[in-house]
């Protein structure tokens, strides 16, 4: 039984929503990080849309060994 929910939103530098995930309140935030970032589609000048941002600034609640660091995701955790 779910007794609450969390809304996870990835936004651009300008605050424009890029992807949204909804979870149960008692699930750890890091479980939704990869899906949230993988849903992003960034329009470029030509060609197919990019699917990965150059950098991700995330809340420390998303910090986990489950999230791969390095080539795929360049993550910075803000205070």
TrEMBL record:
Compositional bias ranges of the Basic and acidic residues kind: 44-55
Transposase IS4-like domain location: 3-67
| Pfam families the UniProt entry points to | DDE_Tnp_1 (PF01609)
- UniProt record, GO biological process: DNA transposition
Spell out the residue ranges making up region: Disordered: 44-67
Q: Which residues form a coiled coil?
A: none
**Which InterPro entries did the record assign?**
Transposase_11
Q: Which domain of life is it from?
A: Archaea
GO MF annotations in UniProt: DNA binding; transposase activity
Q: What is this protein called?
A: Transposase IS4-like domain-containing protein
Which species is this UniProt entry from?
Candidatus Syntropharchaeum butanivorans
């Amino acid at each position: 039984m779910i007794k609450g929910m969390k809304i996870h939103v990835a936004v651009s530098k300008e605050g424009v929503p890029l992807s949204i995930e909804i979870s149960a309140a008692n699930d750890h935030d890091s479980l939704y990080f990869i899906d949230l970032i993988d849903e992003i589609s960034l329009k470029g000048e030509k060609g197919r849309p990019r699917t990965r941002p150059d950098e991700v600034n995330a809340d420390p609640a998303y910090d986990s060994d489950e999230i791969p660091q390095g080539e795929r995701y360049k993550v910075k955790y803000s205070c």
